[in-house]
Design brief:
alpha+beta, Arc Repressor Mutant, subunit A, Alpha-Beta Plaits, four-stranded antiparallel sheet, 42% helix, globular, Transcrip_reg_TACO1-like, DNA-binding, DNA binding, transcription, Transcrip_reg_TACO1_YeeN
């Protein structure tokens, strides 16, 4: 479960490194989370999760502050949370999460990204049953045994603790996200290499070279959509 998490995150981060796209998407996500409750992460858990994610992606403080100020103001911008499911080449599976103020625009764009790149849209539930909602939290400077000891002392249950490259990655149920982070923070760990609520495939597939190229093109087309926040899939990356 969750194998090659760092490779996936690094591929995504390197792709977005020279653009403002990822920051703009975080701006929308922070605004939407803040509007769900108080624009204060200490009393709004959804907002706290988004801000922790933003920190690991080095989102500028100005972007965060602007989104929070907008949420505090009189803005009546309304966004809907949507999930699309579909299939890529060779039976690969994809989940697309979006935040949009124009459902028709987003649905059309996502459908086109699938269909023009060898994929197809599925019905609701056709893919998600093959994925698990998971909290993923990574840190450096600790061994897996030290991480396990910290979590045991805090009486926090997790699914798995794995050493992936230079990080120790903890996989847990989504409702344990904050408990895991608090356990680490109480142990003096304040910086995380990853802090995500994600969808992890139960099984991964490896595509032949031609199908992989087509799949990558499809994922790029989906992630390029303004309204798409997250894209999850079950395709393994080559090392």
């Amino acid at each position: 479960m969750g194998r090659k998490w760092n490779n996936i995150k690094e591929k995504k981060a390197s792709k977005d490194a020279n653009t403002s796209r990822i920051y703009a998407k975080f701006g929308v996500e922070i605004y939407v989370a803040a509007k769900k409750g108080e624009p204060d992460p200490e009393s709004n858990r959804a907002l706290k999760v988004v801000l922790e994610r933003a920190k690991t992606y080095n989102v500028p403080k100005a972007i965060i502050d602007r989104a929070l100020e907008k949420a505090k103001g009189s803005s009546d911008d309304h966004y809907e949370e949507l999930r699309y499911e579909g299939f890529g080449p060779n039976g690969s599976m994809v989940i697309v999460d979006a935040l949009t103020n124009n459902v028709n625009r987003t649905a059309s764009a996502v459908r086109a990204a699938f269909s023009k790149n060898g994929g197809s849209m599925g019905v609701s539930g056709s893919v998600t049953y093959m994925f698990d909602a998971t909290a993923v939290i990574g840190l450096v400077g600790k061994t897996p045994d030290e991480v396990l000891e910290i979590l045991m002392e805090a009486d926090v249950d997790v699914r798995d603790i794995l050493e992936e490259e230079e990080s120790v990655i903890v996989y847990a149920d989504p409702d344990q996200f904050h408990a895991v982070q608090e356990a680490f923070k109480n142990a003096g760990v304040t910086d995380f290499t990853v802090a995500e609520l994600t969808m992890l495939a139960q099984n991964y597939v490896t595509l032949p070279e031609d199908a992989q190229a087509q799949f990558d093109k499809m994922i790029d087309a989906l992630e390029d959509q303004e309204d798409v926040q997250q894209v999850y899939h079950n395709v393994d990356f080559e090392d």
